[in-house]
Amino acid sequence: MSRIAWLGWLGLLLLTGCGRDAEQLTTVRGKVFYQGRPLIGGTIIFTPDPERGGSGPMSYAEIQADGSYTLRTRQGMGAMPGWHRVTVTEAAPTVAIPGQGHLPPKFSDPEQSGERREVKPGQENEIDFHLE
């Protein structure tokens, strides 16, 4: 999937959802590691996985310099409970991560990333990613 098509898809997903979804949002935070080190910046996106019963708006976060993230939607902080497909992109894909190289492009494509996680309702979810 081209980057432009992916960004269009992302924009469309950001526009979906409704007010009642904000009441169901659950806190999700964690860290993203690549080759054993925190990913220095980037974006992480949780997209509900309809194949596993997931629904609602997607959640996203900026990855901080220490690899940490806290998800949010347009409706508020958190993510909808249920299963999600997860994608991760680098902050500057043209600049190699010091001591790591580039994050493989498969992680930015929901069809290829292979990353799926469950957000559990009624509790704070700590979800770390160890990408290779």
**Which percent range describes the beta-strand content?**
25-35%
Q: Give Rg in angstroms.
A: 14 Å
Whole-number count of domains? 1
In one word, what is the shape?
Answer: globular
In the CATH scheme, the class would be Mainly Beta
- Tally of DSSP helical segments: 2
Supply the CATH superfamily name: Immunoglobulins
Structural class: mainly beta
CATH architecture term: Sandwich
Question: Do you know the CATH topology?
Answer: Immunoglobulin-like
**In whole angstroms, how far apart are the ends?**
21 Å
What share of residues is helical?
Answer: 10-25%
Report on the biggest sheet: 5 strands, mixed
Low-confidence stretches: 14-19
Beta-strand segment tally: 9
H/E order of the elements?
HHEEEEEEEEE
Mean pLDDT across every amino acid position:
85
Describe the structure.
By secondary structure, the chain is mainly beta. It has a single domain (3-131), classed as Immunoglobulins (Immunoglobulin-like). Helix content is 12%, strand content 33%. The protein has 2 helices and 9 strands; from the N terminus they run ααβββββββββ. The strands form 2 sheets. Strands 1, 2, 5, 8 and 9 form a 5-stranded mixed β-sheet that branches. Strands 4-3-6-7 form a 4-stranded antiparallel β-sheet, with no helix packed on it. β1 and β2 form a beta hairpin. The chain is globular. The model is unreliable at 14-19 (pLDDT under 50).
